[in-house]
Amino acid sequence: MDVFPFPIARIGIIGGGQLGRMLAKAAQRLGCTCVVLDPTPSSPAGQVAGHQIVGHYHDPAKLRELACACDLVTFDIEDIDTETLIQLEREGYRIHPAPRILAMIQDKLTQKETLAAAGIPTAPFIPMPKPSPESFAAFGYPLVQKARRGGYDGRGVAILQTAADYPGHLPVPSLLERLIPAVKELAVVVARGQNGECRCYPVVEMVFRPAENVLDYLLAPARIPPATAQTAMDLAVRTVEMLGGVGIFGIELFLTETGELLVNEIAPRTHNSGHHTIEANVTDQFEQHLRAILGLPLGSTEQLSPAAMINLLGAPGHRGRPLIRGLKEALAIPGVCLHLYGKAATAPYRKMGHVTVIDPDIAAAESKALLVRELIEISGEDHP
Q: How much is the pTM?
């Protein structure tokens, strides 16, 4: 029988946002302590962890300070100095998922090329090192342009329907993808342990805000045939096994009009599409990630109840200290579970929290979630 000291481990989290916050809460349940690295004092994750190193994700000295202070390091964000992480790993520091995987995924073009080389189905694409009207026209409209680096929460993506939309392109090194007329956008959260075991969460269905290209709400499980769901989970596991990483991975997919499944993007971390697992599943994605990176047995991914999850976004035109309206009315709805992220300032469409709605009927859960979306508004003290 194994004997563990207490605390079980001291975990370094690069990134102090909402994912790190929920990860730190799960770590406390498992008897771990956390140190957070984030440039913003009293970050959402730092508030929970109680110990934060104030510094940037591209500061080699701060990354080393975090690694030296902890038993192992993970991250809740992708925009990190991977060269330093790779060097730290060479020196024997434990970092999961592996920095080489993060480095590959950071570059959207390298990510696509890796998928294609492994035979993972994805949308047709070409590199676009220097955008021009002629090269876009040669590829053909409609298309999606993605910046190779730095894109997040809808930033770094341009959807161009015709040549008339070219002035709205991204003037950066990028790639062009065929615009897929998807019937649904799906996601599968997959955990992979140190022993190579993979466990899948049920497929979720995602609905995006078209203008901002950020997740509006999701339904779990997705309203798709069981055979399609199984194919999606098999494809997601195949993708994670190809990576060979340890931890949680979010696999975003397109379901096409012909029933084909294409991998859109990979997130090497806990994912927005798994937030509902805190209430709806036996083991939530945050605890599961910790189990994986600590070498503990993976937990059950069984879903206990249908659920809908909505992101609470900052109201357009508002910045500054958050002001929350409609909270009492929303919490009066049966099955509503509220998560606020502790961010000191709001901004238009910034993720300020989320709500998960649990209901035996998925249609009822969706209806309640949409009602909550109308009730709750997060504005700010500074507005026109």
A: 0.95
